[in-house]
Design brief:
Elements: E1 3-5, H1 8-20, E2 27-34, H2 46-49, E3 56-57, E4 65-67, E5 71-73, E6 78-80, E7 85-87, E8 101-110, E9 113-122, E10 124-134, E11 146-156, E12 173-178
Parallel strand pairs: 1-9, 2-12, 5-11
Antiparallel strand pairs: 2-8, 3-4, 4-7, 5-6, 8-9, 10-11
Length: 185
């Protein structure tokens, strides 16, 4: 069965043509959370990297990223210290600090052909200063468990409108969501 990967414009145009010819079909949308080290702060444009500027530093795009201060990555439950190398385009095989994201896939099948369009939506960073309990499990360099005031990096999911594309109003969309935790569904 042939499968066609489309960009957003092609995907919407194909749907519009099928609607004009009065064919009946369903568009599937699958939203899945990934945390597979695909995205990190090294390759981010400067405008996006500025959201991390209170805790991270780099000389420019595609250069190594270092911790500017001690902070806790609340999403991954890890503590990073001043001047830790967190992400590099060449020195590290896997980035230490990475950003979770949604993979959004739209697809439909008609006449034995499948049409797909997919894109990624990064979680939004939120940085605050909070009093947190730091344990040895978060980093082996920590001697004893303690409560301290520390910068906290949290990743928040994007709004629902960021996970959708503009489709004609006549289109029926069947939504599939897969999360890391079955209780989140």
């Amino acid at each position: 069965m042939p499968s066609f990967e489309c960009n957003e414009t092609q995907f919407v145009e194909n749907i519009s043509r099928l609607l004009d010819s009065e064919n009946k079909f369903v568009v599937n949308r699958r939203v899945q959370v990934y945390d597979d080290r695909r995205y990190g702060p090294t390759g981010m444009p400067d405008e996006v990297f500025m959201q991390f500027s209170s805790i991270l530093t780099r000389k420019g795009q595609r250069s190594s990223v270092y911790a500017k201060t001690h902070f806790l990555d609340d999403y991954h439950h890890k503590v990073y210290f001043l001047q830790d190398l967190l992400h590099s385009s060449s020195k590290l095989k896997y980035p230490i600090l990475h950003i979770p994201y949604y993979k959004v896939e739209y697809s439909f099948r008609i006449w034995g052909n499948s049409y797909h369009y997919s894109f990624d939506v990064l979680f939004k960073p939120k940085i605050s200063i909070e009093q947190k309990k730091i344990t040895k499990k978060m980093d082996p360099r920590i001697g004893e468990e303690s409560v301290m005031l520390i910068h906290v990096l949290q990743f928040e999911p994007q709004q629902e409108k960021m996970l959708s594309i503009n489709l004609p109003k006549k289109v029926l969309i069947l939504d599939f969501k897969k999360a890391n935790n079955p209780l989140e569904n």
